[in-house]
Amino acid sequence: MTHRDSHPWHVGDDQATRYAEGTLPEPDAWSLEKHVEDCARCASRVSAAVGGTAAGTVLAAVRAAVLESAPGAAVSEEAVPGRAAMTPSAGAAGPTQAVLGGRPVVSRLARLLWAAGPAVRGAWLPAVLGVAVAALALSYGAGFPGARALLLAIAPVVPVAGVALSYGPHADPLHEVTAATPGGGLRLALTRTVAVLAVSLPLLTLTGLLLPASGAPAAAAWLLPGLALALASLALASFVGCRAAAGVTGGGWLCAVLAPMAGAPGGAATLRLAEQLSRCLDGVAAQGAWAAAAVLSAALLTARRPAYDRPLRP
């Protein structure tokens, strides 16, 4: 390795073989996959190793069939950097080589958007914006005094819904494939959960700050409950699937905070909601309980990590 080499290490023959056989430890596999995105030499070595397996033969056949059915997609050998890593002489393994050979054909932005999930694509972001706008309209347009309390009641469910929509067979047509890859499974679920939280937490908290308190807890009081419910949903999803888990955690929260409103007349209903939210969110004891719930959910999720290596229930 020369001083001009931008990579501090390269994939050895033993690593490439173990990766192809599926025996390389998961963290090492992640590191390898990231490295070969920018290193054509190592991509060629890994491609050759994969091409020598039974899966390599199948992938090569799939690649040939795809190219035959899409003649307009044909690309010359010189047109794609690192193309040699995808040719039969370099141990081609079909679609695997299209990813591993040289620079990836799909842009980094496209892969980031796919990994981030519904936080940046689809109808989820407009739905979150709709919740924020509706709360502001209720408060300043309709003069509804309990807008912040209502927002705090709904806000913890928003990340839960985002998690439910972002991962699982209903969210990914290739869920069965991605769940079995080192970059998929729990790693992908957590990536999408972080994207969901990164959008919903600041947006809804800022909206809460713009609303009159009217006896409701602070605008940021829902952050720990939102995190705890999202982690609990991920942990429970390893047993029953994302949508069922979201129904249990999100539905349980809504029942707990909205139940006191049942049968209460107009103004009293808003007051009861604010009081119930204060019991659930205000004070060191309540926030400490939510922090403990988040830690316990994270511990359970860690213990259930192997379940994410297989496709989850719908």
UniProtKB/TrEMBL annotation:
Annotated keywords: Membrane, Transcription, Transcription regulation, Transmembrane, Transmembrane helix
Domain named Putative zinc-finger: residues: 17-43
Pfam families named among the record's database cross-references: zf-HC2
Transmembrane residue ranges: 123-143, 149-168, 189-213, 219-237, 244-264, 284-303
Highest taxon, organism lineage: Bacteria
Protein name per UniProt: Putative zinc-finger domain-containing protein
